[in-house]
Amino acid sequence: MIIMIFEFHQLCILLCTLYFTAHATRGMIEDEFDVKPGGEVHVTEKKLGTFGCIFTYAAQGGTNEKWLFQISKEQEGYVCSVERPDGRSYLFFQQFKLAVVGASIAEVEVMGDSGAQLRSEEYVVDETKNQVYHAADMFRSQLTRVTILAHNPKSEL
């Protein structure tokens, strides 16, 4: 019995080491922050090496909400995501923008309440400025997640 517990303990240590090594090698940042109502423009920025994400917003509604800012290094680039972890927000966003620095936008996903993707006319993807933002007069103020998949810049030989 003692040998089995010892072997199980060694297995747990090995698996934990592999998990943390994989995340450290790949690179990941995860940070909780408050989205604040009141109509003022707020900016939150995170960096992972030379890659950065900048989330800008203005919202109205009750009180602060806890949101999650994530950046991860993937094989072909980076994923930057800003989201309400439970997928529901009671805030009304007047504007939002997620911009990336150090890589080029490959894909974008913008979600509203109840896990529904926003209609394409509610937001603009500007590949020259590497950002996605609300479309004036079309955005219906609902936002629960915005994600950018960005590819590493290609180097010329």
Structure explained in plain terms:
The structure is a single chain. The protein has 157 residues and is an alpha+beta fold. The protein has one domain (29-151). It is built from 1 helix and 10 strands; from the N terminus they run H-E-E-E-E-E-E-E-E-E-E. It has one helix at residues 2-26; strands at 28-35, 42-48, 51-60, 65-74, 77-83, 92-101, 104-111, 123-126, 131-134, 145-151. A 5-stranded antiparallel β-sheet has the order 1-4-5-10-7. A 5-stranded antiparallel β-sheet has the order 2-3-6-9-8, with no helix packed on it. A hairpin with a 2-residue loop joins strand 2 (42-48) and strand 3 (51-60). It is globular, with a radius of gyration of 19 Å. Mean pLDDT is 86; it is low at 1-25.
How many domains make up the coordinates?
1
What oligomeric state do the depicted chains represent? single chain
Q: Please report the distance between the alpha carbons of the first and last residues.
A: 60 Å
Give the tally of β-strands: 10
Contiguous uncertain segments of 5+ residues = 1-25
Strands side by side in the biggest sheet: 1-4-5-10-7
Q: What is the ordering of alpha helices and beta strands?
A: HEEEEEEEEEE
